[in-house]
Amino acid sequence: MGSSSGHQRSKTRSRNRKPLGIQLLERVRGSPISFRSCQALVLVLTFLSYASYHATRKTTSVVKSVLDPKTKTNLGTSSAHYWPPSHLFYLHNLKDADNSSAGGSLSSGGGGGWVPFNEAEDGTALLGEIDLAFLGAYAAGMFFAGHLGDRVDLRVLLTVGMVGTGLFTAAFGAGYWLDVHSFYYFLAVQMVAGLFQSSGWPSVVAVVGNWFGKSKRGLIMGVWNAHTSVGNISGSLVAAAMLRYGWCWSFVVPGVVIALVGLAVFLLLPVAPDVIGVQEDLCLKDAPLLERRRADVEEKAVGFIEAWRIPGVAPFALCLFFCKLVAYTFLYWLPFYISHTAIGGEYLSDSAAGVLSTLFDVGGVVGGILAGHISDHLDARALTAASFTFSAIPTLFFYRVYGNVSLAWNIALMFVTGMLVNGPYALITTAVSADLGTHSSLNGNSRALATVTAIIDGTGSIGAAVGPLLTGYISARSWSAVFTMLMASALVAGLLLSRLVAAEVVAKMESRRTPAPAASDLLPVSSSSMDEP
């Protein structure tokens, strides 16, 4: 048994070697890097890593109106210019820039879009199929990436995913320079990019899970999960700014950035405390997320079916399916929707619509932090997530009905919608996944986090693929039908958590009656249920 455990530790050390950048830094300093410094480094690198992933995803939504502008042209754009006060001058400048550069630099045929997306009558459907290709490959790859992440060096896996993503994101933009008009070229490029991107989320959650404590897990991960919205915002701003030089640059620049960040990850990211030689007792003193490992348990990577059987994994995974269906429909179609909707009687330019859509993600930052803080305070993940999803239903309705009244109304409703839509999405993909990946039923096994994370987010990513695809077809007939689909999805997401919500409420009621409630069996995701008996 002892030799087997020693062999297991030897395999772990060989799989997770100290990064070259940290070795160099320690030589320059003349002393080992501290535990707290590594925690800060992990937070910064994983934040930048996944923000750059989302920046590359957001590009497509901004460029859609350039690839297929005919819908907006058919609707007509008034020559009159109405803009609100000075705090939105940036939108005005972008509109002027678009007007001054709306020639061949933006599209094939003098501003008429890009073949094949502007020629087919179902151009929006083709764009929806492009989204499906990316997100379908992403969802399929997620399950394999999580399984692989518990078995290989997460730093290498993350680096390969980021560099590959950068390469194929740039390849999509290269279709402009190479004058490619084959739909299957863009379809194939997006599929491969989706496969590379699937390695990102299981890797970063597992790395953060190796380093950080759980006493304030919801709040900490809610703040950290702002990388999603920061990436969406930066991706929108960069893509919108690059449109004046040609839509190709909207893909190439984010592709180069994520590849450079991937190089930094390879050189500097420590995936776990043992990589830098920190003793286990010191890690426990600093309250790492993972439980103290039992000395008599040899850690083995958890199987796919075994991970599905962990209490709480299935309902939260299915809930995330519908949460991401809503969130990713906004991610991929909101700029297109804004640019094709008369707001206060005027149509915004493609660049201005891309910039305005970032307010949805600003609301998402607030929603993620708020959901994490509330779930920590209430010690009730399911109740918090369900409350947000149910509250999103009337907000979606109001945004569709009143979002076109004026720019001010659009901004306010978009912000609130982003907060309520992204709040449960952020909570489930971070704190809940970490909770379930270290569930007491695993008996202290730390090699389940990437697999559980991949199952939950992979299932959610199937919904993320379905939503944009359906939107591509439905929006050609009615945007009201699209919002009906989104409201129905939010309703189902909340209902899927009803059993867990009931369990949390019962446990709360029992805790007020007795000093030591048996909550661990009822609340598989609350922080109190994570402690080992």
- Rg is 23 Å
* Helical content class: over 70%
What is the name of the CATH topology?
Answer: Growth Hormone, Chain: A
What is the strand content?
under 5%
What is the H/E string? HHHHHHHHHHHHHHHHHHHHHH
InterPro entries: MFS (IPR011701), MFS_dom (IPR020846), MFS_trans_sf (IPR036259), Sugar_P_transporter (IPR000849)
Keywords: Membrane, Sugar transport, Transmembrane, Transmembrane helix, Transport
Membrane topology: Multi-pass membrane protein
Family: Belongs to the major facilitator superfamily. Organophosphate:Pi antiporter (OPA) (TC 2.A.1.4) family.
Can you characterise this structure?
The protein has one domain (30-72, 118-277, 301-512): MFS general substrate transporter like domains (Growth Hormone, Chain: A), CATH 1.20.1250. It has 22 helices and no strands. The protein has helices at 2-15, 20-29, 35-67, 70-75, 89-100, 123-149, 154-177, 183-197, 200-211, 217-224, 226-242, 249-268, 280-285, 304-308, 313-339, 350-356, 358-378, 381-402, 407-437, 449-474, 479-496, 498-513. One of its GO terms (biological process) is phosphate ion homeostasis. Residues 44-506 form the Major facilitator superfamily (MFS) profile domain.
Notable features of this structure?
single chain, transmembrane, disordered N terminus, Sugar_P_transporter, membrane, 533 residues, 0% strand, mainly alpha, Growth Hormone, Chain: A, disordered C terminus
